[in-house]
What does this fold into?
Amino acid sequence: MPKLLRWSMKRLVDTIVLTLLNKFDMQIYIEGKRGLGKSTLAYELAWLVHCRFRHIERTHPEFIEANPQFKGAYVFKPTRDLIYTRDKVIDFFNKWKVTGIADEFINTAFNRDFYQEEQKTLIKMINMNRDHCNLFIGCVPQFQTLDNQIKNLCKVRITIVRRGLGVIQTPNKTIYIKDIWDATTNEKIEREWIRKGSRKPKYTRLSTVRGIVQFPDLKPKHRDKYEKVKIEERNILMELADDKKKKKKDFYGEIIDKLQHQQIKNSSVLEGMAVALGKNIRTVQAGVRDRLKKLGLPPSIDEYYWEGKKVKFKKKTTEELQQEILNA
It folds into this structure.
């Protein structure tokens, strides 16, 4: 069994820099359990790439003169380049030759959110702007939970197996096989390790593994910057979540108000209101019924549609009244 090739941080950074200098984008995804150092590695890579490009500017001015598009490229500023929302990720991919770290990318590209319009926009932007030569690093608990189209755009996948140690993986070069990460084969190998209770998995057996890399902890000043930005961004996310909850309450309150005042014609109108806000009609109906019950009102939504009321209490014409009198 061949030994795992040990990569230095310098070699990993050189690979990233050379890819960017060759005018390709670089998407890296770092996966692993909480607390193993995903954010640490992402920050360290972004900072080292930043330092390498500043070094190139100082030592190779002739290259910068011949390629002015690389002057001032990949400057890493935590307050600007740590990304926590889908909107900011979409905005990132509109830029050129920049660095971004999506510290909790699972909230942005989870595969079960694919039906959402924002998710479709994200996929479209990532695909369209691959020639923007950006360095994007996403941190996720598990790579396999990402949307398939995003996984296929990943150039390097690093799995943190323990604090300070990551397994480097790259996609296989295939022509006919759609699964470039060979998930089926590698899953069988991993299940065999689990069945045997292996404490030292043979990572070289996985078809996508290229080596391992050891990385240090962040310097205190970098750690302080990262923690400060993370706290600020998470507070913003909590505020957005609270606003979303309030809008949700207002949404159901608005529906019930319209139902009580007979302003919703039928179920098609209610479905249209749900679709306009990206909600599932069954979820909306269940939410409305639940709210009606809490208010002590009849929970059957059909009773409130004015189309039904119109049929039920339709005013009789003069001819119909005359006919009733004659038939009496």
